[in-house]
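Whether sequence alone determines local backbone shape is best considered at the level of individual chains. The sequence in question and its structure tokens are set out directly beneath this paragraph.

***
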Amino acid sequence: MNLATNLERSAFFFPDRPAIAEAGKEIRYAELNDRSNRVATALIKMGIRPGERVGLCAPNSADWITFYFGVLKTGAVAITLPFLLKAGELTRLVEHSKPRFIFTSDDKLEYLENLRGPEGVEKTICPEGDLTLPQVLNMGAPSFKAVDRERADVAAVLYTGGTTGNPKGAMLSHEHISLSSHNIVFCERSSETDRALCFLPFNHVFGQIHIMNATILSCGCVEILPSYDLDQVLALMSAGRVTKFFAVPTIYARLLTVDRLKEKLGKVRYSFSAAASMAGEIVRQWKEQTGLTIYESYGMTETMPVTWNHYYRHVVGSVGTAVPGVEVQMRNAEGRPVPVGKEGEICIRSHSLMRGYLDNPEDTKKAFWDGGWFRSGDVGVFDDNAYIYIVDRIKDLIITGGENVYPREVEEVIYTSPDVQECAVIGIPDREWGERVTAILVPRPGRNIEAKQLRNLLKGQLAPFKVPKEYLVVDEMPKNATGKILKRELRRQFSGE
């Protein structure tokens, strides 16, 4: 098994269909496969062998995808690193993952120079690096078949988002990514006529697996943007170049403020949200304005995907039911399953689980219960129809005056206010209450948030201890590269954690 055979099959079935579109230029499947073959054979000439590690640390581009599949074809492991990393951050991850070669951008060369050596980086591949990508392509041959690997062999290492602490390198096998991609294609009813917009970074599980790998498997076209830009997104959709739209909740909230939104979506037939919990009110408003449902899935870097809120019976507020081949249980703190309707930690078992964290046996052991059940760190609950509802992150739980408050429940009500574009509820240390429930708010353009009015709204729908005691209005939220709000940064900013 080799994940790269998905590209080879798509090139066989649809050699002349577009695989990638970038800045108005399209690359056909036959050409993409040819270019990836050249990368693979050049890497082999330079000494890369199956199981060795090759890094990618660059913005989204057709060249990134070309190099990624080239690495996979050799049987080597793709270490996919966030391209926004600064010197210290990049140094830590490169020293941890130890890639021999790195495909990168010129602005990272200064950081990488100190990481060279017999056990460090041997070659950098970028315009001003040791080799340029065109030089690599010229070294290689256009014909090559992906090296066969065991299904459990690691294909890629993706570093977790670090929203709850230091990032860890999740080792994803060829089987993991292949099964995940097949489930995505099945659940989204994807086809070769689809064009999927991707501005989410390829180093992240959402961009790399859910959008890029699944689209290549389904023989569709990946419409690439290097990052999120509202004007560019609307231009591509308005021009009819997008049929599938993928984003995180904060972007949907921003789009809901756009005039004539439905008209500007063009040919979009499918909209999807992941990476963070979606407020039900945003889903309802999106349906009212566009006629489209925001479909949701639940998953994470280590387990992608786990559930799907699907076509047959979409339930607002739920993340759906388990996808084929995945088992889900809710467990208590002692690791015992809890009954339907009771809250517990979401635990997952499947063949699409990560192999573990790279060179980190301690955290790997902590992540699993006996029997191979992965501990998600999320609190959830089943209903009688096996639909799963995310209650919140265990680490985001607020304990105030001895009472437990899950921020998501409070945020759901706040999002019903027409004045609020984004919100995050956090606990701030308090001498009297232990933690003070605090709402951080971004107003919609042209609107003002009145704390008294918002408090009255919340008092009408929540128990008194859940109602925030403080309301702080900010211009913008701290977010990671995918647009997920970083509550850890908010707690640090407003409480000095």
In short: The mean pLDDT is 92. The first helix runs from residue 5 to 13. Residues 215 and 439 are 38 Å apart (CA to CA). The domain at 5-198 is CATH 3.40.50.980 (Rossmann fold).
